Amino acid sequence: MKIAVRYLVRAMHVDDIPQVLEIERESFPTMWPPTAFKRELQQNRLAHYIVVTERNERAEQARVDEERHAGPFGRLFEEIKHIFQGEEELALPPPDERPELIVGFIGVWVMPDEAHIVTIATRDSHRRQGIGEMLLIRAIELAQGRGEELITLEVRVSNTAAIAMYEKYGFIEVGRRKRYYSDNGEDAYILTINSVLIRRFRERFDELRAAHASRHGGFEDAS
Questions:
Q1: DSSP state of 4
Q2: Residue 154 bears catalytic tag
């Protein structure tokens, strides 16, 4: 019996930028300037971005039907418009009309001595569905795959839900950045974990990953 898969986890593509910017604006409304995702993807060799997407088969079929109706000249026009229009400027249809809706993303810089989580966000409409935790799981797996034992990040001191999630996976507070966030001058905790390669962590990590799969399910890895 095949288990239904609701979410797909994969590497971020340039075509994903408009939707990722949409989530970034929703999650960090006072952030300026927005992240230069195109430069991050194409020029920053340290950067690794992962997205979680939700498939909409009905919207996908509608898109196929529309392309068939438009014919080759219509498709050519859309491709030319896409080339001359910046990725950040592309108009997005409503979320329920998108064949693939990006519902969360995470960015990790893998450096010689650590993996640093630079950003993580989930679409407001998809909170409390295990998406943020799945992104954290993938970030830890990325660090392990690159042989990085240390993972670091910053988090708002008021973000108790995120702090609880990080602590569950073994992150501990090692410092505090005063007035780190420019929107309201809030401090940030510096959290780290420096043991993701050792056996004891891997065993605990496997347990947490299995518990997440049992509780939320429906995630498929396409990276």
A1: P
A2: yes
